[in-house]
Structure formats: structure tokens, C-alpha cells
Specification:
There is one protein chain. 16% of the residues are buried. Strands 1-2-3 form a three-stranded antiparallel sheet, covered by helices on one side. The protein has helices spanning 2-18, 27-39, 46-53, and strands at 67-69, 87-92, 95-101. It is α+β, with helices and mostly antiparallel strands. It has a single domain (26-101), classed as Beta-lactamase Inhibitory Protein, Chain:B, domain 1, CATH 3.30.1450.
């Protein structure tokens, strides 16, 4: 009986710690994309943006082009991808001049 109790406790503990790792979307992507988008302000430095969002997944090809952060949201089979990421930022002189939220972020 003691062995069964130990196995049961270890199983429950493993589930508690492993369940979040089984999620198909990272927490930041699912719960926080809109909040992260709202925290970006026009005029912010690129360094400040990258502290919040991390490195871009699609870098600036040339000045004035959008830089995309965070992976694109999951889309339904009948949807076409709108953008290569979830948040697009346009910089000028190292400062945010425009921000775009992928409309498919739910």
C-alpha cells in the first residue's frame, strides 16, 4: 500500500509540473499578445521593444519595412496567413513610428 501511495503522489506531481509544457501555444503568445501590443508606444526605442518582445522573427529588410515579432497566430484551415508574425513594428531612426497587430490574433 505504501508503494502505491508513493507512485500516486509522484504521478500527480509529475502531471502538475508537466501539464503546462504540453500546451500547444506558449503563454506569452496566447494570453499576452494583445497586452504586449498595447505596451508598445510610438516613439519607443528599438531596444525597449526587444526587451518586451524578444528578437524579431522577420528582421527589417530595409529601412521603413516592418519588423515582425512573435510567431504568427494559429489559423484555421480555411484562412490565409495575414502576416509573418503577430506584431509588426516600423522603425525610423531607431524609434517606433508605426505598430501593427496581426488581425488573426484572437
Amino acid at each position: 500500500m505504501k508503494v502505491f501511495r508513493i507512485v500516486a503522489i509522484l504521478s500527480v506531481t509529475a502531471l502538475v509540473f508537466l501539464y503546462p509544457a504540453c500546451s500547444t501555444k506558449p503563454f506569452r503568445q496566447v494570453e499576452g499578445t494583445k497586452a504586449l501590443f498595447q505596451s508598445i508606444a510610438i516613439g519607443m526605442d528599438r531596444e525597449e521593444v526587444e526587451k518586451l518582445l524578444g528578437k524579431p522573427i522577420l528582421p527589417e529588410i530595409e529601412p521603413g519595412f516592418e519588423v515582425w515579432y512573435l510567431s504568427p497566430p494559429k489559423i484555421r484551415t480555411y484562412e490565409s496567413p495575414c502576416a509573418p508574425g503577430s506584431i509588426g513594428i516600423t522603425y525610423s531612426g531607431g524609434k517606433v513610428v508605426k505598430k501593427t497587430l496581426n488581425p488573426q490574433v484572437r
